Amino acid sequence: LSICFRTVEPLEYYRRFLKENCRPDGRELGEFRATTVNIGNTGSITTADGSALVKLGNTTVICGVKAELAAPAVDSANKGYIVPNVELPSLCSTRFRSGPPGEEAQVASQFIADVIENSQIIAKEDLCIANGKLAWVLYCDIICLDYDGNILDASAFALLAALKNVQLPSVTINEETGLSEVNLKQKNPLIIRKHPVATSFAIFDDTLLIVDPTAEEEDLATGTVTIVTDDEGRLCSVHKPGGSPLTGAKLQDCITRAITRHKEVKKLIDKVIKSIKPK
After folding, report:
1. CATH number of 27-276
2. Which Gene Ontology MF annotations are present (predicted)?
């Protein structure tokens, strides 16, 4: 009976659970799904310069970072580039079609670009090798393998974990020939200056906030909001694509929960990195 009811009246079905301060999957309103991260060659992409796989419940996202050399832009001669791209291929969910990126993938890519810019996760100056001559370009491809909501949190987490895994060879410019020389034997990690973490909420019936929504919860929600915080609890960005307005008090609740989530994610990444360091 409950399966029929859920199919015919999904919102009413959800409301019955929310009244009891829980959700159909057994979680409390402020509870995240089980979160796991694999970094580097432990089950990720061996051809990338850094990679990570993140699972947030059934949502699975992989991020590969590929580094290439290029000339810096004329107006920022001392900076490199970071180029993010989020893909939601048809294989990850029936809601996406093959072909050029749809609206949700474009929004996610722009969100990740804003997180990189606003949080200063990496200083672009650190990617410059020789002023006006040579810099690193980091292509960050984030691909969803299985979609069940909350793509923004999973993508931001996978990006951060993959960047922490990147090792770049040392590059010098030969004074005589003017050519770049790459030393693959000597590799250095990226300097990660900030650890931005995204925390997403769905808004139910204009007032009720639930954290880490599934795809079904996103569809039934009257709005969503994503809060990005850094190590100091500083607000890097608030992403709110329309929907129900939020009171100042509700927004403050979201920020408080986001700061707690930041600590959980950072702890998880540190633990995984420690476990893969050569003994």
Report:
1. 3.30.230.70
2. mRNA 3'-UTR AU-rich region binding
